[in-house]
């Protein structure tokens, strides 16, 4: 199995699904949704290259992690590698899986966009599908806009009490050196504030080096 091309990872958040989770954001997405919260991760360019088993170990190094969330970028374009990640993770401990995709589930099943899609879908507990439509962003739930659907593919998290579609949104801001990461599905207003804050940090860093 080849290496994954990863935009970012985070170990330990409560902003992207039930319980304490680790997140993988893949690099590269064929869609260009207006208002995408991670435009830097749309280009299909080399980012961090990592082997699936090593990534799984990294994501579960914290023993309190209960689940993984795959986002991006477009996870279905790296489905084979991500399947290896969740399988390796589940060999370490029982781990739930939430996965975002810009594709509709029907399309993924009928005409998979790459290798490993059926295998990844077989591992996913909750799939959140569809493109982000800013005009339909109602600031509710884990999906970015009301057209996106929540599929309980395994049924495992259907009775968890976690409201994927109607809950108040939460987001976390993680700062690491000169980089800042916005974790979660934020209300649009928070995204604007975050982008402005990151720009100020960048400018002050540039000024500091001048
Ligand atoms: S599918 Fe997701 S990552 Fe891709 S452009 Fe749309 S919002 Fe951004």
Q: How does the overall form come out from the CA principal axes?
A: globular
Radius of gyration: 17 Å
Structural category is: alpha/beta
Judging by the overall fold, what is the CATH architecture? Alpha-Beta Barrel
| The CATH homologous superfamily | Aldolase class I
Q: How many β strands by DSSP?
A: 9
Q: How many structural domains?
A: 1
Tell me about this structure.
With 210 residues, the protein is of the alpha/beta class. The chain has a single domain, classed as Alpha-Beta Barrel (TIM Barrel). It has five helices and nine strands, in the order E-E-E-H-E-H-E-H-H-E-E-E-E-H. The strands form two sheets. It has a seven-stranded mixed β-sheet with strand order 3-1-2-4-5-6-7. Strands 8-9 form a two-stranded antiparallel ribbon. A hairpin with a 7-residue loop joins strand 1 (4-13) and strand 2 (21-26). Helix 2 (79-92) packs parallel to helix 4. The longest helix has 22 residues, at 188-209. It is globular, with a radius of gyration of 17 Å. 36% of the residues are buried. Iron/sulfur cluster binds at residues 29, 31-33, 36, 38, 42, 72-74, 102, 131-132. Iron/sulfur cluster binds next to loops.
Quick rundown:
This protein is of the alpha/beta class. It is built from 5 helices and 9 strands; from the N terminus they run βββαβαβααββββα.
């Amino acid at each position: 199995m080849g290496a994954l091309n990863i935009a970012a990872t985070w170990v330990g958040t409560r902003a992207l699904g039930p319980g304490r989770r680790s997140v993988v954001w893949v690099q590269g997405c064929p869609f260009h949704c207006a208002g995408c919260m991670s435009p830097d991760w749309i280009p299909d360019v080399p980012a961090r290259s990592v082997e699936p088993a090593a990534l799984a170990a990294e994501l579960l190094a914290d023993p309190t992690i209960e689940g993984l969330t795959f986002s991006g970028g477009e996870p279905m374009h790296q489905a084979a590698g991500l399947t290896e990640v969740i399988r390796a993770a589940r060999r370490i401990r029982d781990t739930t899986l939430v996965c975002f995709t810009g594709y509709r589930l029907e399309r993924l099943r009928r005409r998979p966009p790459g290798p490993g899609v059926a295998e990844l879908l077989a591992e996913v507990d909750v799939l959140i599908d569809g493109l982000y439509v800013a005009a339909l962003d109602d600031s509710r739930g884990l999906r970015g806009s009301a057209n996106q659907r929540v599929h309980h593919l395994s049924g495992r998290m259907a009775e968890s009490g976690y409201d994927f579609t109607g809950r108040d949104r939460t987001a976390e801001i993680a700062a690491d050196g000169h980089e800042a990461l916005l974790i979660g599905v934020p209300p649009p207003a928070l995204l604007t504030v975050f982008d402005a804050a990151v720009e100020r940090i960048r400018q002050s860093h540039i000024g500091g080096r001048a």
